[in-house]
Amino acid sequence: MAVAGPRTRALFKNATGVARAVMLQFKPGWSGPLLGVAANALTDQIVPLEDIWGRSGGDLCLDLLAARSLPEVLDRLSHAIALRTRETSEPASARLARRAVLLLEGGEVRVERVAERLGVTARHLRRAFTESVGIGPKDFARTVRLQRAVRRAASSKDGARIAADAGYYDQAHLIADFRELVGLTPGAFLKRAGARGGEAMAGGAPSR
């Protein structure tokens, strides 16, 4: 059982050959209080839960392996999470980061503007956001924009329209972001995603 931290670049994963897998995905800004470590301590890493929770992490892994059905797995996992939430406290920085996430997901792209709306300095926001989300607010905004483009590409082949609807200045900027964050052009990514249904992508670009 492992924790996959937030990523600054996409990671392709081949899910074939897995007998049983349960993936618990946290919304940005929610993992820190539960895991007990700052999100940026796990950025671009995959860490065994036992290394974070100690013996209780190993015990949870054994409990999940011993479960005989998916409902039983979910019940044991929910119980473990409930125990952790009662034992930990949430810093104010996490709540601030989540409010910033909502603004960035809503279309605001300037960090200074987000900080102004939240009544804090841009420097304070960057520090709180990075600690609670794992990447900086500017990088997060790029991820949101790229994800928006991927969703639009599922129903449209017009690259210029996709770029404009997702918030890019032009199609060239969309392609540049894809190359940097995903390592592929938009066309190559969509072709790969369609041809390999068993493969998923996680991280700071399209799938989070």
Structure overview:
With 208 residues, this protein is mainly alpha-helical. It has a single domain (1-208), classed as Arc Repressor Mutant, subunit A (Orthogonal Bundle). Helices cover 58% and strands 7% of the residues. The chain contains eleven helices and four strands, in the order ββαβααααααααααβ. The protein has helices spanning 31-35, 49-53, 55-66, 70-87, 92-105, 111-118, 122-133, 137-153, 159-166, 171-181, 186-195; strands spanning 2-4, 11-14, 46-48, 199-202. The strands form two sheets. The protein has a two-stranded antiparallel sheet with strand order 1-3. The protein has a two-stranded antiparallel sheet with strand order 2-4. The longest helix has 18 residues, at 70-87. The model is unreliable at 198-208 (pLDDT under 50). It comes from Sorangium cellulosum So0157-2. Pfam families: HTH_18. Residues 94-192 form the HTH araC/xylS-type domain. One of its GO terms (molecular function) is sequence-specific DNA binding. This is HTH araC/xylS-type domain-containing protein.
